Amino acid sequence: MVTLWMQWSTTAGVSPSDNRWSRAGLNQVSFLPNEWLRDAFLRLQVSTAPEPRILVVDIDEASLGELGPWPWPRERLAHLVEILLTRYAARGVALDILLPAASGTDGDLRLALLAAHGPLVPAQAFDFDFAGNRPQPVLDGYLGGAMAGQAGGVPATGFIGNFPGLARAPHVGAIGFIPDADGALRHVPLVTRFGGKAYPALGLALVNCCTGRPALAVENAGMMRIPYARDWRAYTVVSAGDILAQRIAPEGASERLVLIGSSSLGMGDRVATPLAANRPGLGVQATILSALLDRQEGRQPAPWPGRLIACLFALASCIACTLAFPRLSAANCVLLLGASSALWLGLAYVVVPHDPVFAPVGPLGTNLFLLAVAVPYGWQQAQRRSRHLLQTLRQYVAPAVVEQLLRSEEEDPLRPRRCDVTTLVADMEGYTSQVETLPVEAAATLTRDFLDCLTGPVIDHQGTLDKYTGDGMMAFWGAPLPQAEHADLALDAARAIQVRVDELSASRVRQGYQPLRVRIGIESGAAMAGDFGTMFRSIYTAVGDGVNTAARLEQVARDFTHNVIIGPGTVERSRRHRFLALGERLLRGKERATPLYTFEPSLQASSTAPEQAS
Length: 614
What we know:
Elements: H1 5-12, H2 32-45, E1 51-58, H3 61-67, H4 74-85, E2 92-95, H5 106-117, E3 120-121, E4 123-127, E5 139-140, E6 154-155, E7 158-160, H6 164-167, E8 173-174, E9 187-189, E10 191-194, E11 197-200, H7 202-210, E12 223-225, E13 235-239, H8 240-244, E14 257-261, E15 270-271, E16 279-280, H9 281-296, H10 306-324, H11 330-351, H12 361-393, H13 399-407, E17 417-428, H14 431-435, H15 440-460, E18 464-468, E19 473-477, H16 486-510, E20 518-531, E21 540-543, H17 545-556, E22 564-566, H18 568-573, E23 579-585, E24 594-599, E25 612-613
Parallel strand pairs: 1-13, 1-14, 2-3, 2-14, 4-8, 5-7, 6-10, 20-22, 23-25
Antiparallel strand pairs: 4-7, 9-12, 10-11, 15-16, 17-19, 17-20, 18-19, 20-21, 23-24
Helix pairs in contact: 4-5, 7-9, 10-11, 10-12, 11-12, 15-16
């Protein structure tokens, strides 16, 4: 990292927090939601396990207080490097420090000789001011350490190099960064191109110089994502003052790669990272060096096709939701998308270390879009379902039953299903003789008034009106919603029908017309109830043996003085009525005689258990 920010600020006119670095025209401004999510994963995955390959020598506040303020004499810097290479047996040393001007002292020569013949890698910084924020490019000192035959690299507009003797070193590393739009450092130019030559980053130069292995190949010479796999606490950090005084045991530094820099606030080398808002730039260099060592040793996470995984997951989520949405309520659609998002976050957590360009927010954006579709779609489905229910049942079912159906979570409450129902069939006796002598208007009025006497009690007692049969009606209880007392409700409706027909008959008799009589048949049993409509007409009805029996009982009523004939199934299910047995009758279509019942002569319903009279 650039340690002498104050010197560079004077020369180049920039500061550590100057976001003009992010305007380099390199299309590296991150999609911030993706980066925020990646940063959260990094903070969860970061390791504090010790990094044994690297030693960080910090020119910290204690060192400056003990040995004097910065800048230190070049002899002291040279002495620090010599102690590390000799007494502490360091494998190599990198200076995260800029030395653009010669001091004219023996220290310059000692540093130049150490860099030319020993494992010392000095630093040089590049500027990326493609937005043209400075009238003149930054050109200070001398560049060195160009990579022969290296293609590509991130182009730079200026630089701060070293004094001539140090610039002639065979290995020199760059310490330039391009912050993202939010100011956080997530990428580093692994190779920088300037003046037609390619220059390695500081960590890359140190790895190639001092590990004793073949040079690390750089196939993608653009921006490297800094993995931040290790926290600052994972690195062995010692004070420069302790090294100079040799207060540290040599065994702790032997065979390590050493980074010399500063975490001192006064030196200005502080940066924002995904792990913390204020970290030493020296820690970023240690992270880069650690990642490059992992790459050289084949220990970096295996590459995964993160973008392909994200696309496949988003596609699978779209397909699953497309198939599920028509079958789910809006609330369940939201729960499904929530579960999908949680599953994706778990998968993305695993994928992030394996793909530096992976965008974990993509499938979440897809789910957000699906959510924006699911809620209106669920509302539209509910509206369509409500309209269908209303259109089919409003004229046939009690309003309270319709409201319960609309509130229910059942996918299709009108689909045919087997139910236990009680059927009531009612008809006017002698209808033809009643209307044949009447004018058309009077006949229509009689029919309408009689059907009203039948329909009102059915609706009032939560019944479902099946159909009108000219001068009669069929209704049932127990569907589309189950009713525990469907038999008693049907019997209550039959009593109410008798009362209303008697009132209508008395009124007509006073007007000089013939009296009216209603015949009612009631039976209970299993039936198939549902929407049996076609594309031309929709009808909600019930079919079954009990339905047919109720119709036969209504016809049998003409042979009795009793208006209501009740079948054995209804008698068995009733809990609030008393009955009078009428004997047995072989009904049309039946193989065995059917017991017949009617209400006890008492007009009041009993609250005791059912009692059959023989």
